[in-house]
Amino acid sequence: MNTKLLLAGLLLGVGTLTVQAQQTTAKKPLTHDVYDSWKSVDGDSLSQDGKYLLYAVNPQEGDGVLHLQNLANKTSKQFSRGYKQAFTEDSRFAIFQIKPQYAATRQAKLKKKKPEEMPKDSLAIYQLEGGKTQYVARVKSYKLPSRNGEWLAYHLEAPLPAKPAKDTAKAKAPAAAPAAAAKGGARGATAKKDEGTELVLRHLPTGQEYRFDRVTDYLFSEKGNRLFLVKSEKDSLHKAGVFAFNTATRKSMAVDSGRVTYKNLVADKAGEQLAFVASKDSTGKDLRYFQLLHWTAKDSRAKTLADTAAKGMPAKYMVSEHAQLGFSEKGDRLFFGTFPRPTQYEKDTTKLDEDKVSLDIWTYRDPLIQPMQLKQLEREQKRSFLAVYDLKKSKMVQLATPEIPDVSLNPTRSADVALGTSNVNYLLSVGYDTPSKQDVWLIDLKDGRRKLVVKATRGNPRLSPEGKYLYWYEPQDSSWKAMGVKASTPVNLTKKLNVAFYDEQNDVPALPDDYGLTGWTKEDAHLLVNDRYDIWRLDPTGKAAAVNITDGFGRKNNLQFRYVSLNPTQRTVPADEKILLRTFDLKTKGSGFYTDHVTRAGAPQKILLEPYSYTGIRKAQDSDRLIFRRSSFQEYPDVWVTNTSFSNPEKVSNANPQQSEYLWGSVELVNWRSDDGIPLDGLLFKPENFDPKKKYPMLVYFYERNAETLHNYRSPAPSASTINIPLFVSQGYLVFVPDIVYKDGYPGESAYHSIIPGVQMLAAKGFVDEKNMAIQGQSWGGYQVAYLVTRTNLFKAAMAGAPVSNMTSAYGGIRWESGMSRQFQYERTQSRIGGTLWEKPMQYIENSPLFYAPKIETPLMMMANDNDGAVPWYQGIEMFMALRRLGKPVWLLVYNGEAHNLMQRKNRKDLSVRMSQFFDHYLKGAPEPAWMKKGVPTLVKGKEYGLELIEEPATATPAPGQQPATTTVTQPTTEK
Questions:
Q1: Range list of β-strands (E), 648-701
Q2: CATH code, domain with 811
Q3: Is the pTM of this model over 0.85?
């Protein structure tokens, strides 16, 4: 045998094996099929002793897994479909619900099962030390007391209805119910009665259980010394009522009974008092009268504190069933709501419904325009006005009124004053004057006396934690102000400081916002506020000089410091101990942590500052152990565990190990100058194994500023409106995300002068395929896409989601989700015109793409959904009709019943596929899909989707190093 041939054959075989091995391990590009399995980590929490960690890993669609980690011995346990997880206060048990299997729920829906027949949650009770798990079927909810780890209450679903015998089911069917009972008739005639189900109270250390039937609502006191519950009526011997169970004596007692409805249970901090509202009126009545009831542990029965006849109740007022009740921290006051008896319930019984006219009457005297009134109708019907009952003096005081509708309290509700605010005098200007004005009063809780203290502020005054001061940021002079509750004039706390406390990057024609509040120190000693970089300590009296507690270190080093509270129950910032500061590098976009002191001089001390994004930091209450999330473009924000010194951090979750199987990419910060010479930042995402010698197609996406998101992770997920960056990068695209700065009156031109120089800067580097670039944006970004294609032919394709195309018609429109006029948006906020349509008509026209439609040569795909509450969908129609008439290539996607951004997952998946097909066709030479080539006639709507590719000669040449894309999708056949 020829040895040379044999050797050659062996080498060929080895080479073949090597190639096969490389092909086996080669990474693959992301596709639309990966979305459902890409996971997120939710609900991560530590036990109070810091020994245990709970977190759930959930796919976008399907069954998740709850992880329980023992951080001491580094063991873990998994529970399929666990969620709503919590530790008991004593760190002895983990409690969570278990969802039904995703497939089982879907199958039940396909079989059109009734709600009560659908698969239900189970409850799991896991003993942390013993490792034993107990399961309870058909549980709708559970509750734990916040300061007692021994007790658990869980509410069961109704038992499944017994199945009737097949031969007798028809014969035993009940007679048909009468047509409609008249309103106000027998109890429950027009409203479905809540029959209540069994509630189980479990003593966790012993397993002993106490069961209560017919329960509709339940509440633990904070200390867990009592469980309060509401029972529905069974019959004349078993009336509806409120009951209290004493967990120390293990005895139950009736708090009140015999009424029809009980609502809004609230207990005081000690668990010795209970308040609620109740009504004897039938649930079928149009207007039901409620009473405020109060019970103490010393009482045998609850007492009525307030009703229509109560002393202190304003004339023709009544107790509100919708207001949230609350005790003061000391338990000496009870806050509740009242409202004037509505006249609309006085019905005209002389007319049939078919004779009544239905119309909306718009008048120039209306404080709010009709669409806003209609949107706020339910809220107004449920509006209540705050009142207080002094439990020691047995005295009711009305605090809020229709003239001063909004009344707030200090956090502990311990102060003798409340803060009242009202914009009633300024309602006519809502919709174009923003931020709107309001007047402010101090209200005495003892007698209701009011004192007007601030007139026509554009700020949002609040009471300090102890209620000694009111304080706010005033946009009109960009300063922080405070005022003692016994003083007569406010004090400007920042006027003399040579530092800006307003947003220095504000580029809309409106008063800039502030940089936020850090908080107050104990006993209202100091107010801590932020500038762009540092944190300041302010004396609320204005007597002592302001102190930069971060010593100007942030401004000197281009760092931004923000306080991180590690104790969620703490209302103030500790002044006598070290505090943690989240730190952001404004230049590199890296982040980390420093420490500092509120009252000690000196620069902050660095813990870490790295090219990552740090979020979700939480500390165990009784341990120095804490958890946080760390992310970058390549790294999902998994859960990490460390201590307060951040020494030896350890990653404990691994949500998406499959990412290593896919081509991913990288991101870098890029810089350039606008045409006006302004320095700008942007993000450039590059495919994995990027070769600067090759040329790549590029997508440009933009919305305001995004450079600060450099280290954010972006999951592959179906799109609500914008491109999914990892997907396109994985498939060989560059993605450029430029920041934009604006000049008042010229939003479109500002976008052009910011974006185009950035694109040209990248193109000059040689790796961008200048013949295959496209742009995409949604909403404000969609408008800019539509504008840019009237100014340049630089892009081969463009996709605009929910674009405003005609500012002159959009200006007079309505934002239907809120009912507001759109005028404010153009005059003062994002659209940045800075004046009315009649003051600046040419700027409205010049910034409207519709008027320059003949200049458009770029194929344009748009989305404008018919239930868009932000941008009227006719804006997309106007642009489509113009381009259609001009014979320009244009497509309009209208998802029926959908909002501004798509909400339904099936629609998000559909849009994602269509955007890929659109860009792949124009930038990679992929075949054109049927929906682009031939459309989808309404005759086959819902049956055919036009996603199949039409195999014809490509209309574009693939870029060097690129293969023509073949985005194909299996046609849905059963989904409707």
A1: 650-651, 666-673, 679-686, 696-701
A2: 3.40.50.1820
A3: yes
